[in-house]
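During the practical work, I selected for study one protein's amino acid sequence and its backbone structure tokens, as given directly below:
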Amino acid sequence: MTRAALLCAVAACVVVLAAARAVPFKDGDVVMTQQFVDAINHQQSSWTASTNQGPFFGDGFTYKDAKQLCGVTSFDKTRFPQREATQDKPIEALPTNFDSSVNWPNCPTIMTIRDQSACGSCWAFGGAEAMSDRYCTYLGNTDPKYQNVPISAGDLMSCCEFCGSGCGGGDPGAAWEYWVLIGIPTNICDPYPFPKCEHHITGGQYPPCPANEYPTPACNRTCADGSPKVHYHGSKSFLVTGEAALMNEIYNHGPVEVAFTVYQDFLTYKSGVYKHTSGSALGGHAVKMIGWGVTSTGEKYWIINNSWNADWGNKGQFWILRGVDECGIESSGVAGAPKQF
């Protein structure tokens, strides 16, 4: 039986904790140690692990802390159509390397690395970030007003009642359906309610994170300044699954939201092409996929923006192995098209 069958069963982005290679842990156990990092770097050379992940992950960062960041609790694929593939190119006909931030240089939201803080709102962040980008990639070339529409992850997290449980996790697909049906204001109207915070670090640049994840705040009925909300809508949403479909969708229309299983070793990622090497599954996590590439040694990868602030990983970004559905990342993509306003 393959490692994927044992550990990476996320066909519907519902995490399955398999016992075959999972290492038992307690919520209070430290999730990143130098011994663990040294073992990862010894086992493989595709990527580099490090305990130095900036203020977001300090000494004493526990399994409980890590699990709170993994907020994908479901993904109901039955409610969405698959994207149309009538004009898709074969993988061989697409560029070897592609980065949405390079292809659409007038879209500042593409490379904005956000911070979900001590809240399992990744499902809302991955969606809000890609929605923001798609106003620009679809419409920004013809009208500058669409080039910077930073959709509010906080509003999506707090106001979408059918998406899930806010900080307690949610459904990435439902977030895109909410964008189409209800609409979402911008960060300017409804800023994210939680600050950047230090995990088990004292005297840092941010205030300490709470011992438990933040409770989901009530939905704001007006903008922060008291003015009425203006909701920005999508015109449609759809599933994007498989390597070729993801590449074509990103190449033509920009970033998409994807979900995958986070394992203990992923928290230690610093550079290179990540592939699960060691450690237990912690939960489902949603992120924004912006492109792909191939290393000098021929290893294929996806380019991903995370929402753990720019101190984590490679300035908030990571590469993950492409073409083998590593940790389910090619099985649960979702995207959509914006509506003009």
